[in-house]
Fold this sequence. Notes:
This is Haloacid dehalogenase. Its cofactor is Mg(2+). 45% of the residues lie in helices and 12% in strands. It is of the alpha/beta class. The protein has 2 domains: 2-22 and 113-235, HAD superfamily/HAD-like (Rossmann fold), CATH 3.40.50; 26-110, Four Helix Bundle (Hemerythrin (Met), subunit A) (Up-down Bundle), CATH 1.20.120. Strands 1-7-6-5-2-3-4 form a 7-stranded mixed sheet, with helices on one face. The two termini are 15 Å apart.
Amino acid sequence: MHFYRRWQPVAAISFDLDDTLYDNGPAIVRAEQWMLSHLRSEYLATAMLDKPRWLDLKRAVLMARPELRHDVSLARQQTIRAAMVEGGMADQQASREAEQVFAAFLAERSKIEVSESTHQLLTRLAERYPLVVITNGNLDLVQAGLDRYFTLVCKAGAGARMKPAPDMFEQTRSALKLPAERILHVGDHPETDVLGARLHGFRAAWLNERQQPWQQLQLLPDVELTALEELAELLL
């Protein structure tokens, strides 16, 4: 643990999810493999869909609708729909099928592994602080077994822009009825988490398990952690 600023007690904690509370990479890789396999095997319209074509369609969807860059769920659903329409499926049917495929993808994507030590830490923290999620992702917290720890879940999309934009930080501050400086945001990403928190008045705890150089930071956090479990020493 390394401090960049004089530590002051906080009254609430917000958490990033992906690569902060669990390793997100394996779940995303597995879910995307499942999705492409499912689309190829279950629909004639997408029988020839491969990863390069999927990425081309995704880029085209985001170019046509830039606002979807702030909504990973709707962006994926619209890309699935675009693949089906390109393959000859009627628009209305493609919309219905894309919604169903996305729901199944989300279930696969939410099969993440959370360590017992993380569950224990969140249990202890939740007994003393309001805990909030601020995420750019779309994990189903109920399926992942994480919902019971959090009083508020803020996800990008539906009008809320991704971190480091202020939207979800302001939503959190308003819901908790606390000054921003009394809220500690914990996350792994130098820009979306550290910069986002600091720009909007939150305290920032940078989870730097990969030992990234601090020089890449645009603004320094209050504290740098090498393991999530160090929060117990800091806050309990």
